[in-house]
Amino acid sequence: MKLLVEYDSVLIKGEGRKEASKYEDTGRTYNASIEFSSNSFQPKKIKAEFKNGVLRMLIPKPNKL
């Protein structure tokens, strides 16, 4: 799992793999993005944790909108 911050977006990328027979799909790729308004986004204050298959992100609320 990768969490990237680019400009005013947070990008989440990951891969899931499993053992399979020769006729089954062996993996998946996941991509998601979250866009913020540039005046409220504070990328250095984002915290993320991936535990037991769950991604938890803490993104602070802006002081002003």
Q: Averaging pLDDT over every residue, what do you get?
A: 79
Terminal residue distance: 31 Å
Helix content: under 10%
Strand-residue proportion: over 45%
**Order of strands across the main sheet:** 1-2-3
Q: List low-pLDDT spans.
A: none
**H and E string:** EEEEE
What value does the Rg take, in angstroms?
16 Å
Q: What general outline do the C-alpha atoms trace?
A: elongated
Main beta-sheet strand count, sense and barrel state: 3 strands, antiparallel
Report the count of strand segments: 5
Which structural class is indicated by helix and strand composition? mainly beta
Count of helical stretches: 0
Please, how many domains? 1
What's this, in brief?
The chain contains no helices and five strands. With 65 residues, it is mainly β. Strands 1-2-3 form a three-stranded antiparallel sheet, with no helix packed on it. Strands 4-5 form a two-stranded antiparallel ribbon.
What order do the helices and strands come in, and which of them pair?
Layout: E1 2-6, E2 9-17, E3 27-35, E4 47-51, E5 54-58
Antiparallel strand pairs: 1-2, 2-3, 4-5
